[in-house]
Fold each of these.
Amino acid sequence: MPRGWGGDPPRDDDEARERIIDAAMRCVELYGPHKTGVSDVASALGVTRQTVYRLFDSSEELMLAVGAAAAGAHLDGLAAHVADLREPAEAIVEGIAYTFERLPHERFLGLLLTTGRSETFLKNVTSPEAMAFGRAMLERMHVDWEAAGYGAEDLDGLVEFGLRILQSLVLDPPRQRSRAELRAYLQRWVAPAVRAPSRGRA
């Protein structure tokens, strides 16, 4: 058996976490999300399971970290998709719809939606990691949030609101709605709330 970490141990815990996440991604590619466990990741690195558990409390936490690490690619795609949208409600509606539609097709970001992980998504939809992801979504949009009446607290509230809408779509998908119908629904019920940050604050 090769020495732990392939004979090249990490310099610190941050590097160890990065290498564990990279190994987890490789394992998901090889075995699929349902069959990947901490044992597979540990074996790929030549370390013990305890080494992985020292940095990640559970396999669920590790998979969340994998999803977070994959978020950048999704955000790049989202930024390109909504690049022409300047009006806040239009951008948010399309951002929610696009993310919902892409999640099942993005292997790593979609880990949150696999069988047995819906509860994880439910519990972590407003976690610091999820809120940071949502805030990054807003920052990638070409919207002048300040000019639209959004302060820092309003943006935090908008991120939470958007994540909760996405959560509801994930947990109970609108199976009978087409892409156009989903957007029409979000335009009818979500867009008005996005257009009135100052009135909502009052």
Amino acid sequence: MSTSSSADVANLDDATTPAPTSSRRNMLRLAGAAAIGATAAAVVGTQGASANIGDPMELGNAGAGGAIAGTAHQSTAQTRYDWLAVPAGVGFLYEAVGATIVTNSQAEYPSALGGFTQAPNSPTGVYGRTNQAGGNGVAGKATAATGTGVRGEGATGVVATGVSTGLSASATAGTGIVSTTSDAGSYAVLAFGVGGGVFGVGGPYAIAAGATTRANLYLQPNNNFLFGTTPKTVPTTRTDDHKAGEVECVDGDLWFCTVSGTPGTWRRLTGNGAGTGFNSGFNAVTPGRLYDSRGMTPAGPLAANATRDIILRDRVDATNYAVNAANYVPAGATALAVNVTVVNTVGSGFLSVNPKADNTVHAATINWSASGQILNNGVNITLGGDREVTVIAGGSSGSQTDFVIDVTGYYL
């Protein structure tokens, strides 16, 4: 049987398959060469494809850097470069470059796989993508107790976007994600997500803020970042849905959502407030008139066994009833501190002030015992609807009264 004169080792750049030989020894040698060639083809591609891509690919000496076996080529439209060294500590390097090559003598993070770029049209060092349910575009795992699964450094340490969760990290002994930034105006972790930017699940603490030279937690009080200059509105005036447990900071006021809804039920916990005093959701305000049956709509005295729905929202002038402060009681207020006054009383009776649409007498807000009396009582009343209440009159047959409601504070 005749023998072939082909080379014993395949040319990796050409990724060609050598001709068969009649020698058993040569056949084994060729099989090994073919395997090497197939691997190189899978990694590097054919010579023609490599020349058109324009992004050199190198195989280095794992962990030590050093000389490169062979020459990497760029496209014919650029200058041909001979690569001199892989950064020490990198086992495999893929680097996209522009018009020049900058040789790195030492990798910042010695690694088995390195992706470097200095090409403006290829600004990402490593990119991972998957279309599989439950898959991971990029996965990092550290099994040592002090290891780090994924580490990000830069003006922004980690940027994460997601439909349901922007960033998910777990660690059994070490740290799921370590992200640092040396710029005081930057963010170590910046997460975006339709469902949520960062979601934490843990034992004692789902999310814990550790040592810091300033504050453990910062809530952006306005929209001067990402969402332009449009100011935030208080949660009680919004039209989107919210969940119980949400916390929000608006212009220095801290809000907490107690009941889910659109926009849900919110309570202001602390902050600057709008009045002269502020404590645990209560705003003390300069006393102001909200309603007077002697000149406001609906007008006239309220007779026994009748009800009246009124809005306690705007402050009015006590003499001509003109509005002089709209929304003196802000949207979202849940209760008021008021003085309820009865005037021009007839007979004997009482008034009961309930949240709107509650027509049951639970307790008397104020009582009168004779005609012609002027009496007042300082009480807290609960609001319903959009700052509305239902006033119920009771008493002897033919009894009636005008009444006035003045506010001294409100609860959010």
Amino acid sequence: MNWTASSLLRDLENLGVRARAKVLTHSSFTALGPGEGSPATVIQAILDAVSPEGTALFPTHTWLGAGPNSPPTFDVRTSPSLAIGIIPEFARQWPSGVRSVHPTHSVVAIGAHPDRLTADHYGGGICSVGSPYHLLADEEDGWILLLGVNHHRNTSLHMPEELADIPGAFTTEAICRVTGHDGIERLRPSRFHTNRDRAFMRIDPDLTRLGIQRIGFVAEAECRLVHAGRLRAHVLTLLTDDPGYFFS
């Protein structure tokens, strides 16, 4: 049976997405299977699930091909999201969306108070203090929705890596050209993730066992709804005990 806007909303609510929640979604549109709608339908279903007073966030990354030897030129108004799926690209162009001004790992927020989670994300750290990934984990109702993808696509797992300053996880800084919402180009320092493989799915069984995540289906897509704050605390403990935990 093809999914519809109403069936997506029902499935999201059954998974545990609630009104007033702040939800960062990593996604695969094709994983939903055949349906009667577009990526915009999916975004609207998430907005409907968190309304009122909730916020839907989507990664609008531009890191593809970027590194210390090829720092990106980024314009928050026009730079398309890359290698992150079609749903975030629709979200990037949402009329009421507010996008953070980070040169590689920007996030767009839609819904209630979108500036609060995006205003201080413009360079330096990638997912560190002040980033949407960190601020989301400070929220009691902060969640990560992995819609048709797994933890290999969960950018928030880089955040405790950055907080713990894990050796070998990040490159040195480079200077990026970043144009903000005011149209002014500024030079911003930024680090980059190294290309080392991370075994992020290693934590998956424990997250379910500990009640940090719930697994269910939205249409045909297997999904994980993860509490952002409890995830951060759990992973920081793991990395404190073993800084190379994800490199094992």
